[in-house]
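User: Hey, quick favor. My workstation is busy. Could you predict this chain's structure for me?
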Amino acid sequence: MPDKKRQHGARYRARRRAVDILFEAETRDIDPVEILEDRAELSQDPRNAVAPVADYTLEIIRGTAEKLDDIDDNIERFLAQDWQLERLPAVDRQILRVAAWEIMFNDDVGAAIIIANALEMAGEYSGHTAPPYIHAVLDDIIQAHADNAPALTVELAAEPTAAQDAPPAQEDEVFYPAGSAGPFGAKQLED
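Assistant: No problem, here it is.
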């Protein structure tokens, strides 16, 4: 019987490890670059059984750490008016950050691949509600990048997005507090 588990390439594995490291850094409240340095040191001794960090993971982590404010501003731009990035589940936040960094600062990777990988990770790490709203935000970031590639960083007081103008979505009691519309308003229902 053939194995139904999907085989992933080196870049997917690098993205996944970047999400893991960013999640760990936020949870431990330390700089993700410090974790990279620790992993590099630990990987030198085979008794530790710590795999070396791939070059692309290093690039993602360093790039995300360096451009975190720009990345977060662009993610928050597409949240519903009543939501903030800090209110999202931590793993979703890291998936969005990795994908947004690639969209905004790495022209070597196609948008379809970035979104597909982000959605696969969201499906694996998060609940069933995460992939649709992650997809919606990444689509908006891609559109903003296409419309304004040289100056992607946006003012939060910019023109409201369709998600901000839409009526509230149904509550999802798994992730969102009672009485809230969720982080993306009705937009999460569109996809």
